[in-house]
Amino acid sequence: MRDLILASTSSARRALMDGLGLPYRTQSPGVDEQVSPLHSAKEAVRELAERKARAVHARNPEAWVLGADQLVEVNGQTLTKPEDRGAARAQLGKLLGHTHDIHTGVCLIGPGGQHFEGLETARLTFHAVTPDELERYLDLNEWEGCCGSYRVEGAGQALLARLEGDRSNVQGLPMVTVVRLLRQAGFSFFERR
Ligand SMILES: Nc1nc2c(ncn2[C@H]2C[C@H](O)[C@@H](COP(=O)(O)OP(=O)(O)OP(=O)(O)O)O2)c(=O)[nH]1
């Protein structure tokens, strides 16, 4: 049985991997997530996904390690996870009534140094809502730990006017891409245990 590690502290990513049914374990990447301000959002998530995977692989060289990173891009600005409710209000203020992209980079590193990577973008359009409705949504605390301050699988779907792309990508892992990388790496599925 292959040793697969998800290099993530994200409960959303764990939930998505749990659904896939492959045996895996998790480890925190514990990396500095600073990247050059000259990087585009896509370059940043690609670099950080690899940085996370390589950091955990360095501690577990015999394992397969999957890392991921996500950013929201709107009007040329990149948004990550909000620090507090005020930051979440400001983020949603940029997204409501507009269209934004959410990019997720994924990187799979193997015991022999094998390296597979992918990047997926989903495009979301949000309804414009009143300030009172925004405050009511913020009261639900779905903004906590979420890039862009919303949960597409939660109450946040009431904000969604249009979604183009892989919904699981918005949640944190583009599972169509993750499955492609795992199959490219030779993983087999539905093993009898
Ligand atoms: N449940 C849920 N989580 C979301 C949604 N959109 C974004 N997120 C979460 C997934 C990730 O945990 C987080 C993206 O931020 P990062 O890529 O920096 O990952 P994070 O630091 O959370 O975990 P990691 O670096 O993998 O340990 O936002 C959503 O619609 N639903």
UniProtKB/TrEMBL annotation:
Name the cofactor(s).
a divalent metal cation
Q: Does the keyword Hydrolase apply?
A: yes
Active site, UniProt feature: 69
Q: Tell me one Pfam family matched here.
A: Maf
Transcription as UniProt keyword: no
Cellular location(s): Cytoplasm
Alphabetical keyword list: Cytoplasm, Hydrolase, Nucleotide metabolism
This entry's Enzyme Commission designation comes to 3.6.1.9
| Main location group | cytoplasm
User: Which reaction is catalysed here?
Assistant: a 2'-deoxyribonucleoside 5'-triphosphate + H2O = a 2'-deoxyribonucleoside 5'-phosphate + diphosphate + H(+); a ribonucleoside 5'-triphosphate + H2O = a ribonucleoside 5'-phosphate + diphosphate + H(+)
Q: Which InterPro entries does the UniProt entry name for this protein?
A: ITPase-like_fam (IPR029001), Maf-like (IPR003697)
- What exactly does this protein do? Nucleoside triphosphate pyrophosphatase. May have a dual role in cell division arrest and in preventing the incorporation of modified nucleotides into cellular nucleic acids.
Q: Which family does it belong to?
A: Belongs to the Maf family.
Q: What is this protein called?
A: Nucleoside triphosphate pyrophosphatase
Q: Which organism is it from?
A: Myxococcus landrumensis
The opening ranks of the lineage are: Bacteria, Pseudomonadati, Myxococcota, Myxococcia, Myxococcales
Gene behind this protein: maf
